[in-house]
Write a structure and sequence with these properties.
The structure is a single chain. The protein has about 100 residues and is of the alpha+beta class. The protein has one domain: Roll (SH3 type barrels). The chain contains one helix and five strands. It has a five-stranded antiparallel sheet with strand order 4-3-2-1-5, covered by helices on one side. The longest helix has about 35 residues. It is rod-shaped and about 70 Å long. It starts with a helix and ends in a 24-residue tail after the last strand.
Length: about 100
């Protein structure tokens, strides 16, 4: 009887620690692939960043540099990245935009 309870506990633990997180990851990846659209910046499985230029059923065309496009399997997309807005340097009190130099100790 004790062995049966132990086996049941191990199965529940396996389900909670292994199966549920895998299922969530798969759902998130499926949602990402369905929502990718032209103009999105994405990262591929190989760590390449680029902008989506064409979307088909099973592949995409990714622009990785100006006038450099590659065709990839849609499943190679691992993440959509956020394009960061470039911050303008704040003006210093004397009107210069140079960064202040800090003296070395």
């Amino acid at each position: 009887m004790t062995a049966l309870i132990f086996l049941g506990g191990m199965l529940i633990l396996f389900y909670v620690l292994i199966v549920m997180p895998q299922r969530r990851r798969r759902q998130t990846q499926t949602r990402l692939l369905q929502e990718v659209e032209i103009g999105d910046e994405v990262m591929t499985l190989g760590g390449i960043f680029g902008f989506v230029r064409e979307v088909e059923d099973h592949h995409i065309v990714l622009e990785i540099a100006p006038d450099t496009r590659v065709r990839l399997a849609k499943s190679a997309i691992t993440a959509r990245t956020e394009v960061e807005a470039e911050e303008e340097p704040a003006d210093s009190p004397d009107g210069s935009t140079d960064s202040p130099e800090t003296p070395l100790p």
